[in-house]
Request: fold
Amino acid sequence: MLGFIWAFSQAVTLVEMAETNPDLVVVSQDMGNLSPFTETFPDRIFDVGITEANLIGVAAGLAHAGKLPFVFAMAPFVSMRSFEQLRNDCSYNRNNVNIIAPCSGLESGVFGATHHAVEDLGLLRMIPAMTVLCPADPNEGTQAVKAAAETEGPSYIRFGYIEPIEGYTEAFKIGQAPILREGKDVTIMATGASVSQALKAHDLLNGEGISARVVNMHTLKPLNRDVIENSARETGCIVTVEEHFVTGGLGSAVAEVLAETGAGRLIRLGLKDEFVMDVASYPDILTLVGLDADSIADAVRLSLK
Reply:
């Protein structure tokens, strides 16, 4: 459960931030001891139990009173059970509530479909004023947390099964979409944990003489339209990859841009219009649903035919 590990590690980041910001507080959904924040600032952390709507309501109230709340809650539950509070209490009232959400995508495959967060991107990016971030590696996750604190309005930070990306040191900036590998034949646009699989697919394709550009779409909202338009025009085809339904998430966001510009072709990799009923480890789930590196490479090969 790497998403849990990296999300929980943000407690260290929040301690550093809280030392210089007396208004920073933490609100938790029965997530246990968020050490070292719990020990360092015991009077600035509030555990409200497994009550997601109340959780967001409390955080919004704290923000309305001038605090800077960070929420720890599991992605599938905070995105759906508290949707109305996210919309009205946070976005409509412009309250700076920042949500750190592990268990995103298919990370919780061993717990079955009820614990998959595969609708959250579509739900959250529909809400006005909501910033939606999907870091691709742990360091980027830490930078995303810090950036969210400086952003007006609510933010949703999706922590999935992310692994360190070797040599990736680019500074994180909300709204950017770093090009991790250059390419001219096709563009692979991935978000969150899918970025690592996209990079592995790039290496497979590179060995066959296929030049695939890889773009890290770490911000779903605000979306970087320029990177999408340029990639479509320069490489002709975009393949989107996400641990999410193909409707509503990254694939839909890219499709909207391409439909408006009339540039390029699009292949969307993600979950089709059905639940994943298999209960399996995370690597096995990726293979079963066609989101592993081999499946991405196959989709690229097909696009070039």
Remarks:
- The chain has a mean pLDDT of 95.
